[in-house]
Design brief:
By secondary structure, the protein is mostly helical. It contains eleven helices and no strands.
Length: about 260
């Protein structure tokens, strides 16, 4: 453990400035020539929630008994949107920066990592409209909200792991850019973002729990909506998924990164 921590300290000391520059560059590119600029990080989730709430409450008649549907929807959207955007951007990060990799030596993992952190900063900003909705709907804040950093760290680790795997696969198989677009759309509808899991037939509900995002959303909603401490198995699932996928992603990326130069 001490060796890992020392390696992390050394890496941050040596490449921390580069990581900062890559994140700053992404911000400049994303909001270049945008009138509202970073305010879109606040407005986009609200507008998305408004459209989805209008459709799913009036057309499909979705509801969440005992809790406010807007908070239920928003809490799912902000978490899944972070994962979706971060993994999508990370997937192309190595290929997109090949000209830089080819000229200057730098650790290749820094590119998908910078995307996860860049989107993570935007994600923290989306918590502002989420908590605005919580206040406006009268859901309220409770002491259990202090537990949220745990699930956010787990989600970050899970996203980094998936991002490293996608960034690796996309170097060798460019079709992954199109395949993942279909997969993430399917993943969206298989995750209880806009609907309550109880509407799914009982026989199929165990399959829902095979979805890693289910556990991150469940932890978050237990805290925000139901004012309870998540059960021990929810803590274990979130922690295990985050750490396991992070290590798996690092392993896959590290094992293949020396071959990138032949395929990019």
């Amino acid at each position: 453990m001490n060796r890992i921590l020392n390696n992390l300290k050394y890496t941050y000391k040596k490449y921390g400035f580069l990581l900062y520059q890559l994140i700053a560059r992404d911000f400049k590119v994303k909001y270049k020539r945008s009138i509202l600029g970073i305010l879109w990080s606040l407005l986009y989730p609200i507008l998305t929630m408004a459209v989805m709430a209008l459709v799913f409450t009036n057309v499909f008649k979705f509801s969440t008994p005992g809790v406010n549907y807007l908070v239920y929807l928003m809490s799912g959207l902000v978490l899944f949107n972070y994962f979706s955007e971060a993994s999508n951007l990370s997937m192309s990060s190595v290929v997109a920066n090949f000209s830089l990799i080819n000229k200057v030596y730098m650790p290749k993992y820094i590119f998908p990592l910078s995307k996860c952190l860049f989107v993570g900063i935007n994600f923290l900003l989306t918590l502002i409209p989420l908590y605005a909705i919580i206040f406006l709907t009268g859901t309220g804040i409770n002491i259990h909200h202090l537990l949220l950093p745990y699930v956010l760290v787990c989600l970050l680790l899970f996203t980094i792991g998936i991002s490293f795997i996608l960034a690796t696969v996309s170097v060798f198989m460019r079709d992954m850019f199109y395949i993942y677009g279909v997969l993430i759309s399917l993943w969206t509808y298989l995750t209880p973002i806009m609907y309550d899991v109880t509407i799914i037939p009982t026989n199929f509900q165990p399959f829902m729990k095979l979805n890693p995002m289910y556990w991150f959303l469940k932890f978050t909603r237990d805290v925000i909506l139901y004012d309870v401490t998540p059960t021990l198995n929810v803590w274990i699932y979130c922690g295990t998924l985050g750490v396991a996928f992070c290590f798996l992603g690092v392993f896959v990326f590290k094992k293949n990164q020396d071959k990138f130069i032949y395929y990019v």
